[in-house]
Each structure stands twice: as structure tokens, then as C-alpha cells.
Amino acid sequence: MSDDGREHNGHERVPSRRRTRFPGISSRAYEHPADRSALVALRKLSGFDTVFKALSGLLPERSLRLLFLSDSVRVSDQQFAHLNDMLLDACYILDLEKVPPMYVNQDPQPNAMCVGLDEPVIVVTTGLVELLDEEEMRAVIGHEVGHALSGHAVYRTILLFLTSLAVRVAWIPLGSLAITAIVTALREWFRKSELSADRAGLLVGQDPQASMRGLMKIAGGNHLHEMNVDAFLRQAEEYEASGDLRDSVLKILNVLPRSHPFATVRAAELKKWSQSRDYQRILDGHYPRRTEDQDASVGDSFRESAAHYAHHVKTSKDPLMKLVNDLAGGAGDLGGRVRRGFEGFTSAPPGSGAKGEPPADDTRPPSDGTPSGDRG
């Protein structure tokens, strides 16, 4: 449980191992730069909370709560007590005073989510509970509590509503395009918020191997004796560096419809952060407090986000990111490099037809850009 076994919300338990607690920690301490800049800006908007509470009447939040209450199992000291222990522990470590209700839903697909406008609700599936061991599950619950502390549940609920709305107004061309654009932007932000919540899960569990192992099992199932975390992380390196510009484009197309980054990417990002100075400083007690949130600068947050993306482009091994970096650096023969990167899509064998005419025998490979679905 907690770092010293003290009572929290009337519940007391001897910890299996000592872990650090973070009194008054602000979610800014662990948020991904792109996530943090968006959240700081939203929190600065006058009347923002009032607007979203007004929208709550349009959103299916009340319906969701009734659905979970009627057709799922609410976690407590009498039901799924071990999950209740982990929930109380996660809230204690991240100093979240109001413990969100948590439900277990019958679903073989391993998944978890945190939704709600007025009060966040955490839901985990039976597939996830049966898949993960104690330390892996602790990181997942910490992940969801991190969503609650950041206020991500509000924006995820809006995303779910807009996604549903986009389907309903699909027959209106301009309306559908406008909502689709907003949903696409929200998904990009939400993928970054997932990286933030992964960091929160690590702060709760304080076991990097367990956090990365959980992501690996979400990707590959419960055959842990057949898998290896280091090999799984090498997949992420191969995914980033392999292929040419065609593969870079396909990566973008594959991830666009997803609300979560790919599991290998999440594991690699989490490992990088666990080895960073920022993570160690938090463990040492040096982190921003919630009492300072109102003084957070929007400009500083955006500059930090821009610096992060610039560093990512500069250090990335992805062919498209390398091209962008070379373009920024004024490298020569970029046109030739672009043509060579895409020549597999459109090039035809020399002399295969008259100028401006297609070759007699079209040997172009079939398109294979079907995006994969969300998982984990």
C-alpha cells in the first residue's frame, strides 16, 4: 500500500514494499509537454468549467453511470478488495483527496478508462484484471487515477460525445468535416495524455519493469514466459527507424483513428522518462504543487511543448522526421530524396509506355493502409 502504512480514508494496510508519496503534487509534474500545454491553456480560459458543466446535460454521463451501476461490479472492500486497496493506494500516493468510484465490467478485451464531467469514474475490464499481475495492475490503476488528477476524464467524455455526433451528422457534408477535424485534433492530444497517464502509473507503482511488462502483455497476451521486455522495446526502435517515406506515411495513417499510441511506442516513451532527470527529481520531492497551478504560464508551456517536438524531430530515426530535420537544416537534393522515398508508389519501369501514358503491365503494389483499431 502506501509508503508508510498509515491510514487513508479509513483503510489501513501494511505495505508490501516502501514507496514514495507525493503530497500536493500537480499533474504538471508528470504531464507530457504537448498534453500540459493544452491543459494549462484550457484551465486559463475564463468560464471553462461552467461551459463544460452546462454541456453535461447533453452528454451521456448520467447514462454511463447508471449503466455501470446496473451492469458492472463496483469495487469496494467487499468486492474486488485487492483492486480497492490499489485504488486507495494510488489516490494516497498522488494525494487525490476524493477517491473516484471504480467498476469492473465483464469484457474479455483488456481495457481501462476514466470518464465523467462532474465526477470521474474508472472502469476496468475482466480481461485486464485476469491478464495482469498485482504490480502491473497497480500501474494501470495509477494510470487511471492520473487521468482523474489531470482532468483528462472531462476531455475524454467530450471526445466520446463528438465521435458519436460525427456519426449522426455524417449526412451533412460541412458539419461532418468540421466535427471530424475537431475529433482528429482531440485524438492527437489524447494520445499524448495517455503518455502522461503512463507516467502517473509509474509514479504510483514505482516499478518501471512492471509498467512496461503490463504494456507488453496488453500487446501480446498472458504468455509472459514467451516474451521479453528488452526484445519488446527493440521492436519500438525497429518500428521508428525502419522503412522509407512510404512507411512513415503509413504510420501516420495507422495511428490517426486511434485514441491510444501503439503499445511498443508507449513502453519506449515510458522507459525514456523513467531514466530521465525529471522522474528522479519527482522521486526526490522536487515537483510543482497544485497550489502553484494558477500561476502556470501558458506561454512557457507552449514553448516547452515546441521545444519537445523540435527535439523529437532532431533525434528521431523515422525517415520522414529525418527529412524534416534536413529541410530545417537546409540540406541539398531534398527533391531527389523525396522522389526516391516514394518511388515505390508511382514509378514505372523505364520505356514501359509512351510519355504520359500508363505502362502496359501495371506492377504497382496494392495499397495497404488499413488502420488498426485501438487496444489497451
Written overview of the protein:
The chain is mainly α and 376 residues long. It is 57% helix and 4% strand. The chain has 16 helices and four strands. Strands 1-2-4-3 form a four-stranded mixed beta sheet, with helices on both faces. β3 and β4 (121-125) form a beta hairpin. α1 (33-44) packs antiparallel against α14, α6 (134-150) packs across α8 and α7 (152-168) packs antiparallel against α8 (173-205). The longest helix is centred in the middle third of the chain and has 33 residues, at 173-205. The protein is globular, with a radius of gyration of 23 Å. The two termini are 25 Å apart. The relative contact order is 0.11. Mean pLDDT is 74; it is low at 1-15 and 344-375.
Distance between the termini: 25 Å
Spatial arrangement of strands, main beta sheet = 1-2-4-3
As residue ranges, the low-confidence spans are 1-15, 344-375
Largest sheet: 4 strands, mixed
Per-chain topology:
Layout: H1 33-44, H2 48-55, H3 61-71, E1 73-74, H4 81-93, E2 102-105, E3 112-115, E4 121-125, H5 126-131, H6 134-150, H7 152-168, H8 173-205, H9 208-220, H10 229-241, H11 245-255, H12 263-274, H13 277-283, H14 298-315, H15 319-328, H16 334-346
Parallel strand pairs: 2-4
Antiparallel strand pairs: 1-2, 3-4
Helix pairs in contact: 1-8, 1-14, 4-6, 6-8, 6-9, 7-8, 8-12, 9-12, 10-12, 14-15
